[in-house]
Each structure stands twice: as structure tokens, then as C-alpha cells.
Amino acid sequence: MKKTVLVTGASSGIGEEFAKQYASKGYNLVLVARSREKLLKLSDLLTTKYHIHVHIIVLDLSKEFSVNDIFSYLEQEKIEIDILVNNAGYATNGRLTNIDFKHQHEQIMLNSVTVMDMCYQFIKDKLSKNKNEGTIINIASTAAFHPIPYMSIYAATKAFVLSFTEALNKEYRQYGFDIIAVCPGATDTNFFNNGGVSFGNKRTPYDVVQTAFEGLKKKKISVIDGKQNIFSSVLLPKLLSRTKMVNLVSNIMVKRIDARGQ
Fold this sequence. Notes:
Layout: E1 4-8, H1 13-24, E2 28-33, H2 36-50, E3 54-58, H3 67-77, E4 83-86, H4 101-128, E5 134-139, H5 152-172, E6 177-183, H6 205-217, E7 222-224, H7 227-239, H8 242-256
Parallel strand pairs: 1-2, 1-4, 2-3, 4-5, 5-6, 6-7
Helix pairs in contact: 1-2, 1-6, 4-5
């Protein structure tokens, strides 16, 4: 019997790449995103090419308790999820109060709260059915390793995802769950069209997914995609004080963001 993977933020970028690579391995899919048109196009492509079954769920996951709609659908359709990929997320850049309050609030809801909700429901459902196994891939970021002025909420939400995921790995490994946080740096996606600011050379979504698969194979609790990102995210913060690191990142950000008084 084919296993099923659920991917959030599946309509483009890293989420789309996860969908494509799991489809190529013969997995059925549940794809979640806001764009019906993009999901339908991807679904048609993958079902035709790989002869798998694809469900789509059109949903805005930045809304509180929207995750309940996903699990209600899964129960109604009698779909058992084996692998959960929490990929949906976005960033704003600028000073905290220069960004619309609603957008800032929704950024936290999507990047952090939804990740927790999805993990809670997925694990709870598995345990209630005595199916003590499953895989969770949470997409964090290299931004998780230090504060980023002018992207303060994004970095903080990704720090939550990294810490939360590593802790879950310890809590549930004994029950048969594989749980990993994947930390991409600058990646060639639509992220930078929606408020993200890049540092360094961009990797590809394919690179990120392969790093995730390799990390799972090695039973890692978290992985960073790209050697350059390991230096800037792990080694550099160890060499500099917190104050110097924040100042360094702040200077880089000021040069990159739109100079409109943000």
C-alpha cells in the first residue's frame, strides 16, 4: 500500500520540490496552499507523470485553528498521513511597527503556531490509532540561529521552529517517530518576492530537499543546507558576541532592504 505525504506551502518553491520528489518515489500526496490554480496544475502534472493519487486542500494557514480543517478533511476522506512536511511560511522586512499589524500577527501564526498545530494533530492522531511511527519535516531557516534586525519576527519564528522540532525529536523518537528541522539559507524561491532578504549565494529547492533526506537517513535532529550557511549560521555566531552579531546582521540588512524609512 502506498504511503501518503502531506506538504504545506506546496504550490511553489521548497514545498513544490518536496511534492515532486516524493511523487517520483511513488508516494501519494496531500498538497496544501492558498492557490487553487497552482495546486491543480501541480496535481495534474504529478498524477500524469507518476500515476499517484493527489488530494489538494486550498487553505490559508495563517488563520487561527485552520489546521482543524485539514484534519477534518483527512478523517472524512479516510486518508492516513505517513509523512508531514511543514513548509508554509513567509517573511516581512522593515521595522516592526512599519509593517501592518495584521501581517505581523499572521506571520507568527503561519510560521510558528501552524507548525505546532500540525505536529500536535499528526502525532496525536498516530498515537490514538496505536500507529507509533511517522515522519515530520519542519522547515526552519538559517535565520533561526541569530536575531535579524528588520526581519525580527521571521528570525524569531524560525528559532521557535528549530527549538521546538529538536525537542519533539527527543520526546517522540522512542515511539517510532522521525522528526527533523531543515534550515535552508537563501534559496531560489518566491520567498524573496514576498518580503524575504537574501544572504549569500542562493541554493536550489532540490538542494534543500536532498539535505532533508540525507538528514533523515542519518537520524539528525536538524540540518543546515549548504556549507556556506553552516559557517554563517553556526560558526560565525560562536566567534562573535551576541551584540557584534546583531550589529553585523543589522548593517547587512540596512543595505539590502528598500530604503523607505523602514
